[in-house]
Amino acid sequence: MNDIILGIETSCDDTAVALVDSEGHILSSVVASQLDVHNQFGGIYPEFAARAHITAILPAVNEAFKVAGITPQDIKAIGVTRGPGLIGSLLVGLNAATGLGLGWNKPVVGINHLRGHLRSADLEQQRIIFPATILLVSGGHTLLAYMKSATEIELLGSTADDSTGETYDKVGRMLGLGYPGGPVVDRLARQGKATIPFPRPVINKGLAFSFSGLKSAVLRYMEANPDAPHEDIAASFVQAVMDVLIKKSRLALKQYPSRSFAIVGGVAASPQLREEAAKLCKKMKVALCLPPLRWSTDNAAMIALATFDYLNLSIHKEPVADLQLTMDRF
Ligand code: KG4
Ligand code: ZN
Q1: In the prediction, which pLDDT does 27 show?
Q2: CA 166 / ligand 1 centre spacing (Å)
Q3: Which ligand sits closest to the CA of 172?
Q4: Cα of 2 from ligand 2 centre, angstroms
C-alpha cells in the first residue's frame, strides 16, 4: 500500500479533511461547507467561521476515515494548513492536527495554503508538465508562480491589494448580486457589451497585480451613471480582469520557458478565463492544464499532497520560503 497522509484545511470558511496517497489518489475528501452561515452577510464573518470549524472538524476527520475504510494507524503523517488565512479558523485546524498527531503518534506538518493550491493540479493524476507556469486566482490570492519541479517553486508576482476573486465578489455586491460574485458576474457579463473603459491596473508593470483601483472605478462609474445597464458594467469589468490576467500570464510564459500552464483557485471556474487561457496556450504552444474545479477551490487533498513533498525533504525545511512573503499581509 502507498503511504497515506491526512490533510486538514481550515484557512477560511470550509472545514476540509482528506486522505491522499503518495501518488495523489484521493481515498476520501470531506468538506463541511459554511455557505449557509455566511450567505446573510454577503461575505465571510471570521468569528462565525472559527466557531463553525470547531463543531465540524472532528466529525469530518471521522467521516474521512470511514469513507476511506482505513484507521489512523494506517497514515504516515498529518498535513495541516498553517497559513495564510483567517487566524481563528487556522487555529482550529492546527490545534486539531496537533492533538490528533500527539494522540496517534504521527508527525504533523504545517503547510502553506498557497503551496497546496499550486500542487492541486496534480491531484488524482499527474497533469503538470515541468517546467510550468501556474496562475493562482482565488478569493484570497492572486499570484503567478514558476515551478521547475514539484519542490522548486519561484513566486513571480502577486497582488499588492485585492485578489481577483475578492474583486469579483465586491463588484457582484455593487451590482446587487449574491455571494460569491464570481459565477453570477460572469453570467451577467455574457449578456452585455464591454463598452466601458475601466482601468487595467498595473498592466504594464511586470508580473505584479493590483485590483483595488478597478474595484473603485466600477463603484465610481455606478455612482455617476445610475442607469447604466448592469450587464454592460459586468461585461466591461470582466474584460478588464481578463486583459490583466492574460497579459501577465503571457509575459510570464515568455520570460520563464514552460511546457505547461495551469490555472488553479476558485476563479479558474470562470468560462471567460478558460477560453482566453486556451487561446493563449495555443499561441504560446504550451499545454493548458485545468484541474477539475473541486481541486481548484479550497480543499484538504491539496494540503495532503503538498505534505508528501516535505516528508521527502525534511519536515523542518521550508522548500518555498518565497511564498511566505505573501503571508505578510495576513
Ligand atoms: O479558491 P476559492 O474557492 O477560495 C479561496 O481560496 O479563496 O475561490 C473563491 C473565489 C470567490 O471569490 C468566487 O467569487 C470566485 O472564486 N469564483 C469565480 C467563479 N467561480 C468562483 N470567479 C470568477 N468566475 C467564476 N465563474
Ligand atoms: Zn485558497
Answers
A1: 98
A2: 8
A3: 1
A4: 27
pLDDT in tens, 120-139: 999 999 999 999 999 999 99
To test the pocket of ligand 1, the residue of 120, 168, 326 to mutate (highest count of ligand atoms within 8 Å of its CB) is 168
For the CA of 264, the closest atom of ligand 1 is 1
Binding pocket residue ranges, ligand 1, CB within 6 Å: 12, 138-140, 165-166, 168-169, 180-183, 186, 265-267, 269-270, 297-298
**Which atom of ligand 1 is found nearest the CA of 163?**
12
* pLDDT tens per residue across span 176-205: 998 789 999 999 999 999 999 999 999 999
Task: Calculate the CA 55 to chain-centre distance.
Answer: 24
- Enumerate residues 6+ apart whose C-beta is below 8 A from 5: 19, 20, 21, 22, 75, 76, 77, 78, 79, 304, 305, 307, 308, 311
SS3 (DSSP) at 111: strand
Predicted TM-score (pTM) of the model is 0.90
Give the CATH fold of the 4-119+296-311 domain: Nucleotidyltransferase; domain 5 (3.30.420)
The torsion angles phi and psi of 164, rounded to 5 degrees, stand at -60, -50
Quick one: 128-290 is in which CATH superfamily?
Answer: ATPase, nucleotide binding domain (3.30.420.40)
pLDDT tens digits, one per residue of 222-269: 999 999 999 999 999 999 999 999 999 999 999 999 999 999 999 999
Residue 134's nearest CA partner among 125, 148, 123, 204 is 148
